[in-house]
Amino acid sequence: MGMAKGSDKQPLRVLVAGGGIAGQALALWLTRGGHQVTVVERAPALRAAGAQVDLRGQGIEAVKRMGLLDAVRGKLVDEAGVAFIDARGRPKATIMANASGKGRQTLTSEYEIMRGDLVRILHDATKDDAEYVFGVSVEGFEQDAHKVVGHFSDGSSGEFDLLVGADGQGSRIRRAILPEGLDPYWRVGIHMAYWFVPRIASDSNIRDTYMIPGGRQIMRRSHNPTETQVYFVLREKSEEASAIHRAPVERQQEFWASRFRDAGWQTERFIEGMKTSPFFYSQEIVQVRTDTWSKGRVVLAGDAAHCASPYSGMGISGGLVGAHVLAGEINRHPGDLPTALANYNRVLRPFVNEIQGEVNPRLLRLGLPMTQRAIDVFQATTALACFLHVPDLAARLSTQDRGGNWQLPENPALTSV
Q1: CB 252, CB 299: distance < 8 Å
Q2: Chain segment 236-262, per-residue pLDDT in tens
Q3: Keyword Metal-binding on this protein (predicted)?
């Protein structure tokens, strides 16, 4: 690839902590900019598991600019819409995806893909140009005006020009650069667990959403012929609920089973399926809100900087957009990192404020009613709206998708064809 023409600047040595969506997207743009990138991932191999995710608005554009849109299209999940069902599994209201190509996406995006497939696509696009080290994490670092030294979990250390914390919602790098005692989490009082169970004949390509009194919800969506995803969602503000996500998986599963035991519908099947699922993931729904995205030669990217939560519909898109902006500024100012990092903050901040602002806790609580009566009202209202084609019309007539009219800046790296 080489550096841009006429530039005699030294390539930067960049250490990226975290081989997820944002970390790999950064590796793609920075190696195209001629820099030396090392990605360290704590997991022993590529973390290609996880839930179904979607691309929207500027996120679709970011993938297009990477030249990966066809690869993504080849892996899309067929999800035709969302049904709100009763305890017998009968749909009370169904909102179909907006496939018109105009306006905004409904609850289902036209770009639905499994997180693992997106991770693999990014990996295939970067593995020949960036160095990947698995089973290792950044335990600590120190920096001065000229370099940052990373200390790794295997006892080794290395010298770099820049350290990027792309290490997710629970980022350790973020903890190291934020002032002591500052809590970056904006909590909405909602928790979620998800896992896979074997697919059965009645699992269709419509996502089922089942509401249960006590602020509980079960979602079922099926992404391939043999697997079905299960999501348990719980509205609860308790120490126990917040702490459970750090407990051993067996304890997590006991917690979720106990909260949903009497829930009806296919709850038994789903709880039984926890035991054989290839993975089980439990998390509190939070946003990461901090004024500090960098300190010296250390910068945060993706969820570590600005997790928008699954309810924004823009978490993955936000990570791809953030990587695009950060890499663009570094590639344009490789000899002046303070300017590059200040620009990253200035350019990306309005977009992050927009996507985080879309998450309204009052609206979320409406979707997790406490009583059967409130559930009946929600379903009746939704059914009437669907009968009148309101979601469909609202989606088609909307002038913009989530993320507003914020424009993606110019291409981070002019590639030699």
Answers
A1: no
A2: 999 999 999 999 999 999 999 999 999
A3: no
List the end-to-end C-alpha distance of the chain, in Å, as a whole number: 9
Structure tokens at 28: 């793609």
For 109, 170, 307, 378, the CA distances from 104, given in Å and listed in that order, are 9, 31, 22, 23
Least confident of 144-148, 196-200, 210-214, 369-373: 369-373
Q: From edge to edge, which strands make up the β-sheet containing 294-295?
A: 131-134, 36-41, 13-17, 162-165, 298-300, 294-295
Q: Copy the structure tokens of residue 135.
A: 């089973």
pLDDT band at 379 (very low <50, low <70, confident <90, very high): confident
Decide: helix, strand or coil at residue 325.
helix
What pLDDT, in 10s, does the model give residues 16-67? Answer: 999 999 999 999 999 999 999 999 999 999 998 888 898 988 999 999 999 9
Confidence at residue 313, expressed as pLDDT on a 0 to 100 scale: 78
One-letter amino acid of 345: N
Q: What is the DSSP string of 169-199?
A: TT-HHHHHHSPTT---EEEEEEEEEEEEEE-
Which residue from 160, 159, 161, 164 is spatially nearest to 174, judged by alpha carbons? 164
